[in-house]
Amino acid sequence: MSTKRDYYEVLGVNRDATDEEIRKAFRKLAFKYHPDHNHSDSGTGDKFKEINEAYEVLSDREKRAAYNRFGHGATEGFFGRGFEGFGFNGFGDIFDAFFSGATTTTRQGPQRGADLSYNIPITFEEAAFGCEKDISIMRTESCSQCQGTGCRTGSQPARCPNCNGSGQVRRTQQSIFGSFTNIAPCPQCHGEGRIITDPCPQCRGQGKEKRQRNIMVKVPAGVDNGTQIRLSGEGEVGERGGRPGDLYVTLAVSRHEFFIRDGNDLKYELPINFAHAALGAEVEVPTLEGKVTIKIPAGSQTGQVFKLKNKGIPHLQRRGRGDQFVELKVVTPDTLTKRQRQLFEELAETFKPLPDRQ
């Protein structure tokens, strides 16, 4: 007595199921139990074979009729030889043939060229107000002699004899599900449909060459360290008529001697002595555009901040500028002359003692 499960039970359909219902049930189960999708489950191979065996019988009218009358005994002979007779080499071929059908591959079209990158060092002031920089890059361009055709001047590419210019080769395979045609790129012309019989001597048939190029880069005002500028079409040449890639220029801004950038604002620490802090004074302060004079009021303390409006960094790609903030730092002298010490001692005697906070 056969130990095989009922084929209708295997596919999960009724005995009066239509051909389309059987086909849908098989597709769903075959995808679920395909061994390539279940590497960790060693039993999926047997399960997948059982599903295919059931479908082979129930999808064929004569085999299904014989199975309905006589059960598994009527179909034993069909499976002793496995699937080799139908042109399959295993589960992968069965799955691919059923679910893929006719595979089509079109000739490769234009492909965009690769992007390039370049780093430019600039000064703090160049970043603030903008500048122009000349750079030299090595990039792939269309051959200057053959203009990218890859052929010697006066000659033309020939039609590929292997694919007759289509760029594709076809392979037809018979299976239990019908006839399937696989279409793949031609191995001789690599899908181009043509071959170069008389190559250009300069590029050796490649259609492109490496060349050194000088490019002027406009750096706008207000850029910061790490800002990236894109130069469209200044990258590598494209393939098969595709447009060139882009050139991305990254800016490396050097630090300033005494300015610290905070967005579009500038910070500057102004050292002053005790006398200027106590009595007040007018002092010169550096800015990006030269020195300006500011008034320090009497009794100023360390940490006090003054704002110089519109003396900061210009806004990138829009009007206006940031501000410059000047922070006071009262400096204690570490060495004194004899006269200075005498004056500080006389001054100290005029101050009242500081209150004891303990």
Summarize the structure.
The protein has helices at 7-11, 19-33, 44-58, 61-70, 76-79, 91-100, 124-129, 274-279, 338-350; strands at residues 116-122, 131-142, 158-159, 168-175, 178-185, 194-195, 208-219, 228-231, 247-253, 260-262, 265-272, 281-287, 290-296, 305-308, 324-330. By secondary structure, it is an alpha+beta fold. The longest helix has 15 residues, at 19-33.
**Could you tell me how far the N terminus lies from the C terminus, measured between alpha carbons in angstroms?**
105 Å
What fraction of residues sit in β-strands?
25-35%
Quickly count the helices. 9
Strand tally, please?
15
Note the topology:
Blueprint: H1 7-11, H2 19-33, H3 44-58, H4 61-70, H5 76-79, H6 91-100, E1 116-122, H7 124-129, E2 131-142, E3 158-159, E4 168-175, E5 178-185, E6 194-195, E7 208-219, E8 228-231, E9 247-253, E10 260-262, E11 265-272, H8 274-279, E12 281-287, E13 290-296, E14 305-308, E15 324-330, H9 338-350
Parallel strand pairs: 1-9, 11-15
Antiparallel strand pairs: 2-7, 3-6, 4-5, 8-9, 10-11, 12-13, 14-15
Explain the overall architecture.
The strands form 6 sheets. A 4-stranded mixed beta sheet has the order 10-11-15-14. About 8% of the residues have low confidence. The chain is built from 9 helices and 15 strands. It is α+β, with helices and mostly antiparallel strands. α2 packs antiparallel against α3.
